[in-house]
Amino acid sequence: MPTQTDMMTMNSSDQAPEQARAGHEAEQDGSVRAERDGSPESPEGRVLDAMQHQVAVFARRAEQTRLGGIGQARNSMDRAAYLLLNRLDQVGPMGVKALASGMGIDSSTVTRQVAPLVEAGLVTRTTHPEDGRAVVLKLSAHGTARLGQVRSSRRELMAVLTEEWSEEDRETFCRLLTRFNSAMQSIHPSTDTPEVPAS
User: Fold this and answer.
1) What are phi and psi of 136, to 5 degrees?
2) Phi/psi at 162 (nearest 5 deg)?
3) Torsion of CA 92, 96, 98, 103, to 10 degrees
4) Quick count: other Cβ atoms within 10 Å of Cβ 56?
């Protein structure tokens, strides 16, 4: 018949595997949580850390070099002007509010940035075709020509930067960068609503 000491030893022996199993399960559960919550020790966390670092490096280098293209048109147009002209070229004539909403910035910023473009003859102000009281911004012939020059210069720069990439790599990078920019826009959306022409 087992003594009390034997019973205690048996109970202890029985509990040891259970405790070890429980500890192992808790450790596994913690690892799974770490992988899911994006902590620095998890694979996801390491990727996110590397990603934020590369984005910071890209932002700094883009600002340093201005990514302004190659040749005579290099850095001949600032980023704000290029984006405004490009938007007007892609979408067509529009009012300040619609332009601001589409670009994710406020109307006062667009008004300030458009002024020198109008003065330089790159953009013209015309009356709205459906509402004579409203004013729309339109890319001028001179603006179209200048935009073409700058766009060509920047296209050449992209070709140089990715000359060792495959076409698939370029398409993948463009698709993911577009998706990344869209995600950034969703976090800081424009406060303006799209402009609706008066009936």
Assistant:
1) -120, 155
2) -120, 25
3) 90
4) 10
What is the tens place of the pLDDT at every residue in 63-77?
766 666 666 656 568
Q: What angle do CA 72, 77, 79 make, to 5 degrees?
A: 135
How many CA atoms lie less than 13 Å away from 75 in the CB half-sphere? 6
- Distance (Å, rounded) from C-alpha 18 to C-alpha 117? 76
Phi, psi (deg, nearest 5) at residue 111: -60, -45
Compute the distance between CA of residue 67 and CA of residue 150 in angstroms, rounded to an integer: 11
The pTM score is 0.62
Residues with Cβ within 8 Å of 45's Cβ and at least 6 positions away in sequence, in order, are 34, 38, 39
Give phi and psi for 141, each to the nearest 5: -60, -40
In the chain, % helix, strand, coil (3-state, to 5) comes to: 70, 10, 25
**DSSP letter, residue 191:** S
Structure-token match 């067509």, residue found? 92
